[in-house]
Design goal:
The chain has 297 residues and is an alpha+beta fold. The protein is built from 9 helices and 13 strands. The protein has a 6-stranded antiparallel beta sheet with strand order 8-13-12-11-10-9, covered by helices on one side. Strands 3, 4, 5, 6 and 7 form a 5-stranded mixed beta sheet that branches.
């Protein structure tokens, strides 16, 4: 009876599709909004006291990679059905490719160091954000009233140990670096720390040699493949309003002749003053990846 009930409650949820022999939850913003509301309404007063903060609370923008103690509601204070909703929220924000990686990262952290927060009370037409944060994984879903500005993230990815989770990105970057001569690589140097803005450092994609520019676009697309189509579209709309992908600047530092598991030690960034997609090799088998954006004006 329990199996049948669980099956029924799962398949009637919004945005489901049958692939092969398994039901898979498909991420989109309608599904994310519904899950966020269901999860929030399921919280008791004690749980809400830990999870709920004002929409403009500065913790909404915090970027912390280690498995530190954080403000918020730890998953070990949730009931199993509520934890299942947190997992659904992860799926709602990501693609199948991204969900696979995020779930692998999530396995590295015990429930008492995985935290959820609501910034503002979720609801139709309201400004609110849902945030799950833990060791090397932060996902943020944010919605705004129509007259408010737009932002994306911050999203933190990576891992320690990370293994080969991000090898598809790394192989593209190594190919990109190999396509450039020493003079071109020198022009790409800039800020290398995790989360540091690009500003006017590096070189705009439109000014790169054609083979490198094509690989740069491919690299950026691979990172954005982590997100659901709706989340990806919101990020791309912010970029489009700031001149498009080709106006973003590329920064590359360090030794990108080998992958991080083979001793390569490098960092790269796409961005400008308000957009950032980056990768920092924090050590062998240890990566920090950031995605964030904010509309200008």
């Amino acid at each position: 009876m329990r199996t049948l009930a669980a099956f029924v409650s799962f398949v009637v949820f919004p945005a489901l599709t049958l692939t092969g022999s398994a039901w898979l939850f498909q991420g989109n913003d309608d599904a994310a909004r519904a899950v966020a509301l269901e999860l929030f309404q399921s919280l008791d007063e004690e749980q809400k006291g830990l999870a709920l903060k004002p929409f403009e609370d500065k913790d909404r923008h915090a970027e912390v990679f280690p498995a530190a103690e954080r403000k918020g509601l730890p998953l070990d204070k949730l009931k199993p059905a509520q934890v299942a909703l947190v997992d659904k929220m992860l799926l709602a924000m990501t693609s199948e490719y991204g969900a696979g990686r995020c779930k692998e990262i999530a396995k590295q952290t015990p429930a008492n160091r995985r935290y959820v927060n609501f910034f503002g009370t979720p609801g139709a037409g309201k400004s609110f954000a849902f945030r799950i944060a833990q060791h090397h994984l932060t996902l943020v879903h944010c919605e705004f009233q129509p007259d408010m500005g737009r932002e994306f993230g911050p999203v933190l990815l990576g891992g320690n140990p990370v293994g080969q989770l991000w090898e598809a990105e790394e192989s593209i970057l190594l190919e990109l670096a190999k396509s450039l001569d020493k003079e071109a690589l020198e022009k790409l140097k800039g800020p290398g720390g995790s989360g540091q803005a690009v500003g006017k450092a590096g070189v705009a994609l439109k000014d790169l040699p054609k083979p490198a520019a094509e690989l740069a676009r491919k690299l950026l697309a691979k990172r954005l493949e982590v997100f659901s189509a709706d989340r990806k579209s919101k990020f791309e709309s912010i970029i489009a309003a700031q001149g498009g992908v080709d106006s973003l600047r590329l920064v590359l530092n360090g030794n990108a002749t080998a992958g991080h598991l083979q001793g390569g030690n490098y960092s790269w960034k796409f961005g400008n003053d308000s957009v950032l997609v980056d990768w920092q090799t924090a050590g062998k088998n240890h990566l920090h990846l950031t995605v964030r954006a904010r509309a200008k004006g």
